Amino acid sequence: MTIHTNRRTVIGAGVAIGLTSNALAIAASAAQAVTGRSPDDVARDEAYWRAIASAYRLDGRYVVLNGGGNNPQPGSVIDALDRYNRMAGAQPRPHNYTLYAHRHDHRRRLARLMGAQPEEVAITRNTTEGLNIVIWGLSMEPGDEILMSEFEERYAAYIVNQRAARHGVVARTVSLPLSPSVDDVVSAFRAQITPRTKLIVASHLVDGWGYNLPIRELAALAHEHEAQVLVDGALSFSQIPVDMRALDCDYFATSLHKWLNAPLGTGALFVRQDRIADLWPLYGVPPDRTDIGKFEYVGTVPGPTYAAIGQAIDFYEQIGPERKAARVRYLLAYLTDALAPNGNVRVVTERDPARRAGLARIAVSGTTGRNLTRTLREDFGIYTWGNFPGPNDGVYVSPNVFNTPADMDRFAAALAAISGAA
């Protein structure tokens, strides 16, 4: 693993800004202490994770358990963004555009983390933008179909349903059980796919449930029927290792401000090389833009925000994808064990450790997810999110690398008090 602890960026005519960060030095030093140990072993090493947590600048107001939402950034990202903003604010040209040019380096590094080629990765603003690019960019005729499970109800479904209303595309929803097997998922989609199906949309890691859908198997089904697969990777990339070649998907949209801890408003879109030419960009582009860059053409962009993606990648690489995945899984397992004695609390998540990631939906008898979110925040200083009306209403919990077992105990104690089990 390459250690990026002395990153320097040349801006304009010979002006250099040093971006060496104490946060990166902390992560590099901590990594040396655990070299050669398995990710599962390191996941339980609290000294290592205390060091990693010290690289963040949490204000202490809340215990943050919303890792799948907008994550805090390590100090190295905050410092880089601040310096870059000062430069671009003082003289937007050429600084803003020179900073924006860093996306070429980011594309290469993100591609390596995604198991893709740099020519297949566009830098976007978030997962939603990537989903829009693909769903609106595919050439489809009235009567052509898009299949998706009901798990896409909050994000991709909005886009699919709007395209259906405008262009006569047919939006079809596939029902899946909670914690379905691979056969359950493939069989449900196989029963719905037809010769008119052009696209399957599926979340890699299902929002709020904590398990992976079998993307590779869905891709095989789609390709067998000359359809394509778009993956919502908002919650998987940089929480767990991903590999586009192993998934064999056609498109993969993700947000970098989630698990990568990059600045807000940054994302990435993988488009398989042989799909780029036929996919329309979301915005009008010059006729000579025929490569992956055509999906990045959105007018003026915040160069400082995009440039600071590099420091987020640096920090993530210092920790390592396998270590991070093991840690968040460990913390969630610790939490579910702590909650087990409370009969008024229900953990709605994947029980199989091989399929589980670091997120879950947790329900408390007698209260809604919205009320539980507010009570945890206002009365216990714990930040989660929840509003899932229906039989599985609850809060969405996703610990990150700055969390500790003590945070999990605090959350369990709060639920015990709220549920009357204290």
List keywords for this structure.
422 residues, alpha/beta, Aspartate Aminotransferase, domain 2, Aspartate Aminotransferase, domain 1, 2 domains, seven-stranded mixed beta sheet, three-stranded antiparallel beta sheet, 14 strands, disordered N terminus
Please render the helix and strand layout as text.
Blueprint: E1 8-11, E2 15-18, H1 22-33, H2 39-42, H3 46-53, E3 63-64, H4 75-90, H5 92-100, H6 103-114, E4 121-124, H7 127-137, E5 145-149, H8 156-167, E6 170-174, H9 182-192, E7 197-203, H10 215-224, E8 228-232, H11 244-247, E9 251-255, E10 267-271, H12 303-307, H13 309-319, H14 321-339, E11 345-348, E12 360-364, H15 369-380, E13 382-383, E14 395-397, H16 405-419
Parallel strand pairs: 3-13, 5-6, 5-7, 7-8, 8-9
Antiparallel strand pairs: 1-2, 4-10, 9-10, 11-12, 12-14
Helix pairs in contact: 1-3, 1-13, 4-5, 7-8, 14-16, 15-16
The structural class is alpha/beta
Global morphology: globular
What characterizes the major β-sheet? 7 strands, mixed
* CATH architecture label of the largest domain: 3-Layer(aba) Sandwich
Strand content: 5-15%
C-alpha Rg (nearest Å): 22 Å
Characterization of the model:
41% of the residues lie in helices and 14% in strands. By secondary structure, the protein is of the alpha/beta class. The chain has helices at 22-33, 39-42, 46-53, 75-90, 92-100, 103-114, 127-137, 156-167, 182-192, 215-224, 244-247, 303-307, 309-319, 321-339, 369-380, 405-419; strands at 8-11, 15-18, 63-64, 121-124, 145-149, 170-174, 197-203, 228-232, 251-255, 267-271, 345-348, 360-364, 382-383, 395-397. Strand 8 (228-232), helix 11 and strand 9 form a beta-alpha-beta unit. It has 2 domains: 99-312, Type I PLP-dependent aspartate aminotransferase-like (Major domain) (Aspartate Aminotransferase, domain 2); 323-419, Aspartate Aminotransferase, domain 1 (Alpha-Beta Complex), CATH 3.90.1150. The protein is globular, with a radius of gyration of 22 Å. The strands form 4 sheets. Strands 4-10-9-8-7-5-6 form a 7-stranded mixed β-sheet, with helices on both faces. The chain has a 3-stranded antiparallel β-sheet with strand order 11-12-14. It has 16 helices and 14 strands. Mean pLDDT is 90; it is low at 1-20.
